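Forwarding these from the shared drive since the link keeps breaking.
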Amino acid sequence: MSASLQGSLMVDVAGTWLTADDRHLLRQPQVGGLILFARNIEHPRQVRDLCASIRAIRPDLILAVDQEGGRVQRLRQGFVRLPAPGHIAQAASGDAAQALAQACGWIMATEVLAAGLDLSFAPVLDLNHGRSAVIGTRAFGGDVGVATVLAGAFIEGMNQAGMAACGKHFPGHGWAEADSHVAIPVDDRPLETLRAVDMQPFIRLRHRLAAVMPAHVIYPAVDSGPAGFSRRWLQGILRTELGFEGVIFSDDLSMAGAHVVGDAAARIEAALVAGCDMGLVCNDRAAAELALSAAQRLGVAPSPRMGGMRRRAFVTSDYKQQPRWLDALNALRQAGLLEPGA
């Protein structure tokens, strides 16, 4: 199978090795990616072996993980415990903070690539307004200028390691108080406010982002449905108004914030019709199979944009011997951003 072709559905697997059911699912051409969670991960070598077994079946799949730093960090044992993005601005300012953010992005991407994966869904470009518990310190802060600069430095570090960046959660999840994993968040602010504040990191960094992930948030002043199912948001604003040409990944379509659209078949169809290039259906194999049937019925062609999400560099397992690795870790340690002994 050509390594340039990917389907429009990203799925997951249950454990640390592939079952016969997993292998059958991954062989379906509509499946274009796989995301790992903590349950799939024991240590670096096991992850490399799992990724190798996946690529033996489908070398074209995009292999992803959520490795932001702080509490959202799936790769743990044998990996650096990175600080939450929001702690960087608390530890330093100006050029020093940018250097730390870049070091975090480079370390994260280096470890993820060395484990055999292509992509971490990072960075978070939401603003921390002190309202959303699900965002909080996952954001680089509440100040638009500072958050944008630090996120840009983090992206630079990712790119230097050989990883593309995916900004989330467009147009901004930081104001809505509800957690879209378990509820349907609403942000009642007018579009003018969103453009002037929460959208700014996406606007300013759009040419440096290879991908964007929209929020499962309803912005009723703009559209009655969540942003990830909205042609107004994805086609009218993100594509046309902002001129974004990269990949659009849906957020997990199994989350409660997506259920407003209907069952998994309705969700994947709505996401793809709205403009997502790839829809994620995670933590629910029955839903993934329903979404797969819908994708097969729709017959959506693979997006030509998806190739840009593959790893851009091969990182060997001896990366910890590199001078840059040692320098980056030392910088974070001196700033008090690493756990003792890390």
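-- next protein --
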Amino acid sequence: MVRLQARPTDADWLAAAARLAARGRPMSRPNPAVGCIIVKDGVVVGRGWTDVGGRPHAEAAALVQAGERARGATAYVTLEPCAHTSPRGPSCADLLVGAKIARVVIGSQDPDPRTAGSGIERLKSAGIETQVLASKEVDASLIGYLTRARYSRPFVTLKLALSLDGCIALANGESQWITGEEARAHVHSRRAMQDAILVGGGTWRADQPRLDVRLPGLENRSPRRIVLTRGVAPDGVTIINQPSQISRFDDLQYLYVEGGAQTAASFLSDDLVDRLEIYRAPIVIGGGKPALGDIGLASLARAHGRWEEVENRQLGSDRFTAYRRTRNEEG
């Protein structure tokens, strides 16, 4: 018996647009990485994502690819089409109207006050059927942009590479290498998705880390380097004196914190970590340097219910696990 595959739903197309959006991160900064797919009669006729430097926008790129086939089609876009014009080009809402799109499905309303609902109203006033459909895939793809809008700071990922007994180095400070090649390559792929990478002053002085991306073809994705210290800024490096100062960087949506123990503890203590990524190697050190310093926890009860596992995979001999900080909309 031949099984007929079900036609993709609106949610499926939005999830696909969210995956497409990842191609724009982080090179789309200061704009969010947005994805757009244009579908007509069940066939993709155009697709696009935010280009380097933020232009062209995803909708503009998808419409160019679709051409005349956009007339009467449905556009699936992860973020509400912009409604404001700029010297860099017309608004995406106007472009969709001009292309005679019949329907637009949006994964997230834009918190930018220049759009914030007016993009949707522009589409509706032109007679375009417009729907906002909640999507966890879309929210995940825009999490840096949405975090900045909500908390006035970038989305923070804390990365830790540990032994089974929770150490990040031998007692003498030796830490290269706790994890294997597969895990280290994965770290570099994660670096390539960040706007900036941060370490503490002690780690900087002791290890002189390059903090770059060393995967073939992704070397140009090396993030901005930041050091948490009260010392003098090294050449090509930005310094901050305390974790809360990450709010100063208006152009950053994604910040990757790599250590050391006190820096990690200070970000956790200030409740600034949104995602925790742990690489655990199958080794026991004993008497080594612990992964974290004091984070000011007063009771075990406060430790529970704060982290939710969202990813788990094997990387060679090492185990990678990621956790999401559970927060309500008010923080």
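The chain has a mean pLDDT of 89. The chain has nine helices and 15 strands.

- D.
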